[in-house]
Write a structure and sequence with these properties.
The chain has about 180 residues and is mainly β. It is about 0% helix and about 60% strand. The protein has two domains: about 40 residues, no CATH class; about 130 residues, Jelly Rolls, CATH 2.60.120. It contains no helices and 16 strands. Strands 6, 7, 8, 9, 10, 11, 12, 13, 14, 15 and 16 form an eleven-stranded antiparallel sheet that branches. It has a five-stranded antiparallel sheet with strand order 1-2-3-4-5, with no helix packed on it. A hairpin with a 3-residue loop joins strand 2 and strand 3.
Length: about 180
């Protein structure tokens, strides 16, 4: 039976604990689950936008030659999408709240020359040039990760891109894009 406190409710049980505001919207939830026979707890802050997106299929290697490729074009599913601010249709995150966001992008790639990812904001390079994979042995595959804190105004959208100098190759099936609101 839920506990009512000033119109808000607190509910609990063996596998979940939830607090709802006076509008019945969940503001805090803690759930338990199992993975490989281990019990774990999952905290969900309903008001914090966050997402992790990846590919639901296994597309072939994508090539980019002397230019930019929108890498999230293949990220059509999410494992986390708190607030539904990542669109699996246009494959970008739109900030619902003005403030600082932490974004990450992991990629599996190789190049005969060099490649480097960058976060673009509102369809334009945001000026934070990232060099990853420059100087590695040509045509060897690598895992790379880029992280950045970006100040977004409500309505700004963010997407990861990759530049290929010469010809670079990118494998979407082993790559992810994610982020969360920091405050």
């Amino acid at each position: 039976m839920p506990l009512n406190i000033g119109g808000a409710t607190v509910e609990g049980g063996t596998s979940a604990f939830t607090i709802k505001n006076t509008s019945a919207a969940t503001v805090f939830s803690r759930q338990t689950g199992t993975y490989n026979s281990n019990t774990f707890a999952k905290h969900i802050d309903a008001g914090r936008p966050m997402f992790v997106a990846g590919s639901s299929t296994s597309p072939a290697w994508q090539s980019v030659t002397n230019g930019w490729l929108k890498t999230s074009s293949y990220f059509n599913q999410t494992s986390v999408n708190n607030g539904n601010h990542y669109s699996t249709t246009n494959t970008r995150f739109t900030a619902p709240i003005t403030g600082y966001y932490h974004f990450f992008f992991t990629s599996y790639s190789y190049s005969s020359n060099y490649n480097h990812p960058m976060f673009w904001v509102n369809g334009s390079a945001n000026g934070k040039y990232r060099m990853r994979g420059h100087g590695k042995v040509a045509n060897y595959q690598m895992d790379g990760q880029m992280e950045e804190v970006i100040y977004c105004t409500s309505g700004d959208y963010v997407e990861p891109y990759m530049f290929g100098g010469g010809t670079a190759h990118y494998y979407p099936a082993h790559s992810l894009f994610g982020g969360y609101y920091m405050g």
